[in-house]
């Protein structure tokens, strides 16, 4: 069932209406209902695993496209390797050895829960293959502080022929830390294909890979309503039949120096951060994620607050909103938003809903494509651009760089809008009657070299 965020209005006098099908991300988050589900794939590619960042100093730059090139060819060897910190050996807490036997791992977690927690050292070059469903997961639910230390090629997976279950559930009071582990093969008919973090629970993922997990509900890799931190890790090649192919968040989520790449969902291919949640992403990538309907990379939904810094958001696709959707509040600093595609509708790169607010600073929005309006940005709310470049974007209809409909307000400070293309008009900026665009020319903003024109509609200070 589709829940549009706004009803389509009749064409305003002297211009066409904005053609946007912007989904009710807040309602979807509260109800868990599917937005129209079609063409669901059986699962992600079994042989493709995203690479884990390998240098503690990795820092995606909005000005250097080469800083984190991601061509989609990832090496499984990197899953558990993590950062080497230029020769510094990372210290991890010593724990109880767990031999390479699945029954031994299950017993060790059971004992740790009974004794109030433990640090468990799993075997290296070992795959713990889970075959039995224990209350929806392959391992006993985590109810105390437990650390699982892996090592070179340590994997926990679900047997292909086993009943459907996720790998791990963390319940209230549980506090799980994963170090140097691969979690894959989980499959559930509910939420959290790999890991489920319930309210009142905590999860910390260090130098690990959450890959190739499937959820029939939300959160192909991880579904969290607790507190989750992902560091120097990969959440990649997971899928959700509903929302949040990589991560579905209704709690507090932090992603640092990590890759959320090549995940798929009906909506919110990479990350869905919904009602009442908070999300912070730094020095990371969201690349190659896809959604059949809306928000290829990430959505920050109604009542949610987000901040993204020093991060590359590239090559994501969706029917509408190729990369980023905002219905809450989002700040982007030093972000590259490039080469994303809305295949049929609006917003190749970024869309802001009618009650959404976005601030973009020191960033680059470039080479994004929209099937209709807003090649780079489609703004229905309040958007502020500071020291940002909007270049090389294309729209199948109007607003190659920025499309601002009746409800939108855009303020540009020290910002360049150049070399964007629209098939119809508003190559640089299209402002629909009733919308507000303030170029702040005195700050150094300019709109130039766009085709077929620089601006269409009422854009004071813009030279046609």
Automatic annotation (TrEMBL):
Coiled coil start-end: none
Disordered: annotated segments: 46-98
Biased composition (Basic and acidic residues): 60-85
Protein name: Putative outer membrane repeat protein
């Amino acid at each position: 069932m589709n829940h549009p965020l706004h009803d389509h209005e009749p064409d305003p006098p002297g211009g066409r209406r904005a053609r946007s099908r912007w989904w009710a991300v807040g309602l979807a988050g509260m109800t868990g209902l599917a937005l129209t589900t079609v063409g669901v794939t059986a699962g992600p590619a079994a042989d493709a695993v995203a690479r884990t960042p390998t240098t503690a100093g990795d820092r995606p730059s909005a000005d250097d496209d080469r800083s984190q090139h991601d061509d989609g060819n990832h090496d499984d060897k990197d899953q558990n390797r993590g950062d080497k910190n230029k020769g510094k050996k990372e210290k991890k807490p010593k724990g109880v050895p767990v031999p390479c036997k699945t029954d031994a791992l299950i017993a060790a977690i059971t004992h740790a829960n009974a004794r109030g927690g433990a640090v468990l050292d799993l075997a290296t070059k070992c795959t713990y293959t889970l075959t039995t469903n224990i209350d929806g997961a392959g391992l006993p639910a985590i109810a105390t502080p437990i650390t699982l230390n892996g090592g070179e090629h340590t994997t926990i997976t679900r047997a292909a022929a086993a009943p459907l279950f996720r790998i791990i559930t963390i319940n209230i009071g549980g506090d799980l830390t994963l170090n140097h582990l691969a979690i894959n093969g989980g499959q559930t008919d509910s939420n959290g294909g790999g890991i489920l973090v319930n309210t009142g629970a905590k999860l910390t993922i260090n130098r690990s890979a959450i890959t190739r997990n499937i959820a029939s509900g939300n959160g192909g890799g991880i579904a969290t309503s607790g507190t989750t931190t992902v560091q120097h890790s990969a959440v990649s090649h997971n899928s959700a039949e509903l929302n949040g192919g990589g991560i579905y968040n209704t709690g507090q989520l932090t992603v640092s120096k990590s890759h959320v790449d090549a995940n798929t969902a009906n909506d919110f291919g990479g990350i869905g951060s919904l009602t009442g949640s908070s999300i912070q992403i730094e020095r990371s990538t969201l690349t190659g994620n896809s959604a059949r309907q809306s928000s290829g990379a990430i959505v920050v939904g109604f009542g949610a607050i987000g901040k993204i810094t020093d991060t590359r958001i590239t090559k994501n696709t969706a029917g509408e909103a190729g990369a980023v959707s905002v219905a809450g509040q989002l700040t982007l600093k030093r972000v590259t938003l490039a080469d994303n595609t809305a295949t049929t509708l609006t917003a190749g790169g970024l869309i802001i809903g009618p009650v959404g607010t976005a601030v973009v600073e020191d960033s680059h929005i470039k080479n994004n494509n929209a099937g209709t309006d807003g090649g780079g940005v489609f703004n229905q709310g309040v958007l502020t651009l500071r020291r940002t470049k909007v270049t090389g974007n294309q729209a199948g209809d109007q607003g190659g760089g920025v499309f601002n409909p009746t409800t939108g307000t855009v303020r540009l400070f020290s910002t360049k809008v150049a070399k964007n293309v629209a098939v119809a008009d508003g190559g640089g900026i299209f402002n629909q009657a009733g919308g507000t665009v303030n170029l702040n020319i005195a700050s150094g903003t300019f709109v130039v070299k766009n085709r077929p024109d620089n601006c269409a509609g009422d854009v004071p200070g813009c030279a046609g």
